[in-house]
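User: Before I run my own analysis I want an independent prediction to cross-check against. Here's the chain; please return only the structure tokens and, at the end, one sentence I can use as a sanity check.
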Amino acid sequence: MKDKKNISKAHYCVLDDDQLFLKRAELKLTSNLKKNYCGSFVSTGIDAIDIAKKTPLTLFIVDIDLGTENGIDIFDKIKKITPQSRVIFITGDKKMMQDASLRKRALEEGGIDFITKPVEWTELTIKIRNNLELMSHQYWLEERVQERTNMLIHADRLATVGTMVSSIVHEVSTPLTFIKANQETCLYAWKKAEGKIENPEVIDMFEALIRPSLEDSLHGVLQIENLLASFRKFYKKEEKISQEDVVLVLKDVNTLTTYAIKKNNIIFTINNFLTDSFIVKCNKQELLQIITNILNNAIDALKDSSKTNRRLYLTLENDKLSRILIRISNNGPAIPKDKVEDIFEPFFTTKLEEAGTGLGLYIVRQILQKTGGDVHLENRTKEKPTVDFILTIPTVPQRR
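Assistant: Structure tokens:
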């Protein structure tokens, strides 16, 4: 999640047809606010509207009497362009300040304060600074609310997909049971009849063709059953925290990613350098999810590259802090430098719109940090020919 300091800073704009006042305002305000805030100083409503179009998060300081124009009317147009903008009205006409209907209209149009000329610059500086801070904070909160809303929508979609997959798994499992039973029955019948059949041609045909076909089919059924079991584990809603063997979890991960790896001609290598406990305290479903997510990202990176020698590595090792390190490396292209800082942000993605949601790595980090772990990136360099994602997961002390 982005820090408030990193979001675009609010802007302020002074609109007044008095050129001497504008020059005075620019001198005083830029000096008092220094470089912390950006300001514009314009003399026409058209200029102010242009600024509103370019910088939606703007605090306007507007003179009500602009000669041929009315400041309240100008801000009414601005507000229709950018509802996030705010305004402080100023005037040198005391009659205007005393006009109750005018003040009422100014407030209704979004005026948050009134300033009279001659302006007390220190007071105006404080009001501008306070309102810009408030606008920035409000903008930051609205962004977070939108992020959470988008995440809830996405989570609802995933839940729908999970329900569909669960239904598909159930529907596939039923006929698969019949197929497996029929194949096993055929093999059983052959074993019963094997010693009673004397025709050598029949025996040769069964041993050379039928028996191997049945055994291969049974092996294929077993692979499908393992895949369906992995799908059940992946989509099953599981809230409980348990102690899990990382190596065993990787078997399910391997099952879920094998097809994509083979389809894209990727050489996949698992290196297990664990010398100590490899039991972790986690939600098994979430652990399965995060490892599969990183692997799928690596597969996507490799299949989009022009490399013919596509390699994917998963390395398990311990560190000195009683943690397991899962390093997932691929020899695909480096992540662009201008994207590196944002890859763990929600809804940021380098994939096409139909291929990515931008939530994967964000969710990976959230899950790992919840367990006391984390994930970080080591980008490809001239000296290091792989892009590495390193997952750290605390281990559970084992009794000796």
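Sanity check: The chain is about 55% helix and 20% strand.
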